[in-house]
Write a structure and sequence with these properties.
Elements lengths: L1 H5 L3 H11 L1 H38 L2 H11 L1 H6 L1 H25 L5 H28 L3 H26 L2 H26 L8 H35 L4 H34 L3 H28 L1 H8 L7 H27 L6 H23 L1 H25 L3 H25 L9 H13 L2 H4 L8
InterPro entries: Poly_Biosynth_Transport, Polysacc_synth
Main location: membrane
Membrane topology: Multi-pass membrane protein
């Protein structure tokens, strides 16, 4: 515990408080699902999944890129903002032009088309806000970033829920949701413009340069969001009616706990980028701190959630969504793999090795889609969750192998071992719940915890790191 406290600072607390406001967004999704029922909620879930995919054509990896550039050089990085935003605006126009044929292809008709457009417009606003928030992250101003995100979520959710209870209409709720996000964006942009020098002479060459710089991250981001959101869209297309809604509900619960590891990366990515510009040993220590936080701070919480997954579904969504437990029992253990895959990818980005990511993600997406085509017709949402776990595990281990081949053997092999041990421990409650293992097998979890503790010793993790980083 003393070692864990030693890696913490107030930046992590501010990041945690900001992400804690995701509870408001979850509350909105839960009340929307309860008030409107699985069929209408499925329309929103499908639009949100499509919006998440198309939003990557807008942000194009600029949030991570801006964080890295500002962390390395705050003044020059801030002046890149205008060029990033100009490219994002072009991307938004392309997305809006593509949306109508996409809705026709998906068989969306009537008022549902308008709902899809409103959700996409809300995503446009959200994408730009994420880029602007990255300016604050890169400068290490996590308290200011926490205030901004808290205001946004309180404002948006309060207005949308008010309209939900007054109208019981999905259309008016999503219209309010979109307008609230746009208003917040305008206010946030005005605030930043007063504090920082965001503007530089705008010309085609610099904007194209920004696009080329962001292209590897853009491709990675598009593939990454497809990797996750394709499940819901494929469920809607080839699974029985309502299955996408149940899977979406379990995915939203998974996102609650995903927010915990995102808190760690919000701060650690800035630290990794800064330490890469300093010296090799400093970066090795930052990788160790991040691994320690993920293992000791996140995995026990996910394990606890796995133990109480049935009460979680009943408490949040009600007994109507009881079928969501089938997919949730698989999605929760997958977090044990996802967190270390994210760590490997952030290390590569901080070291400006992001060109390795697109081909790796192409393989993961193809594996995920192929597995979905095989598993969804047989097991529905549970099949989609299995596909996510398998493809995520493959991606994580391959990313860690890339680090090993780049010369980071000790770190790569150690994190690989922690990943597999963590998955086994977190999966035990789900295996017991589905009667796939005997109770006495749970004793192996104690051995797994001991093995992880051994791997996390600084003298083991950091041994010979200075030779490779």
């Amino acid at each position: 515990m003393k070692k864990l406290l030693g890696v913490l600072d107030l930046s992590y607390l501010y990041a945690f408080l900001g992400e804690a406001t995701l509870a408001l967004t979850l509350l909105f999704y839960v009340l929307l699902a309860r008030q409107l029922g699985p069929e209408q909620y499925e329309v929103f879930a499908s639009a949100a999944a499509l919006g998440a995919i198309l939003s990557l054509l807008i942000s194009l990896g600029f949030p991570d890129l801006l964080t890295r550039e500002v962390a390395l050089d705050p003044e020059a990085g801030a002046r890149s903002t205008i060029h990033f935003l100009s490219v994002e605006c072009v991307g938004a126009l392309v997305v809006l032009l593509l949306l109508f044929p996409i809705t026709r292809l998906l068989g969306v008709t009537g008022l549902d088309v308008a709902i899809f457009y409103l959700v996409i417009l809300a995503e446009v606003s959200r994408s730009i806000v994420l880029t602007l928030r990255s300016l604050l992250k890169g400068m290490g101003q996590f308290r200011a970033e926490m205030v901004v995100v808290s205001i946004e979520r309180f404002f948006v959710v309060a207005l949308a829920l008010t309209v939900l209870f007054l109208t019981q209409s999905l259309f008016w709720v999503i219209l309010t949701f979109m307008l609230a996000r746009v208003l917040h964006l305008l206010g946030f942009l005005s605030y930043l413009n007063q504090r920082f020098r965001l503007w530089a002479p705008l010309n085609m060459a610099r904007s194209l340069g920004a696009f080329k710089m962001a292209l590897p991250l853009a491709l990675s981001g598009v593939l990454w969001i497809v990797f996750y959101q394709a499940d819901i869209l494929m469920l809607k297309g080839i699974a029985p009616a309502g299955e996408a809604g149940f899977y979406s509900a379990s995915y939203r619960i998974m996102e609650i706990f995903s927010a915990l590891y995102r808190v760690v990366f919000y701060v650690s990515f800035t630290r990794l980028s800064q330490s890469f510009g300093d010296n090799a040993q400093q970066m090795a220590r930052q990788v160790y701190r991040t691994t320690l936080l993920l293992t000791v701070g996140i995995l026990p919480v996910v394990l606890l959630a796995s133990v109480f997954q049935i009460p979680l579904v009943n408490l949040i969504y009600g007994e109507t969504y009881a079928p969501s437990v089938r997919s949730l029992s698989i999605l929760l253990p997958s977090i044990a793999v996802i967190i270390f895959g994210e760590l490997a990818r952030y290390i590569l980005i901080a070291m400006k090795r992001d060109r390795y990511l697109p081909p790796l993600l192409v393989g993961a997406v193809l594996l995920n889609v192929a597995a979905n085509l095989v598993l969804i017709p047989r097991w529905g949402g549970a099949g989609a969750a299995i596909a996510t776990l398998v493809s995520e595990a493959a991606l994580t281990l391959v990313c860690l192998q890339v680090l090993i081949k780049l010369g980071y053997q000790r770190i790569g092999w150690t994190i690989s071992a922690i990943t597999l041990l963590g998955l086994g421990i977190v999966a035990l409650p789900s295996l017991l719940l589905n009667s796939l293992v005997s109770v006495w097998i749970g004793g192996l979890g104690i051995l797994g915890v001991g093995a992880i503790a051994f791997l996390l010793r600084p003298q083991h993790f950091l041994k010979a790191s200075s030779q490779h980083i």
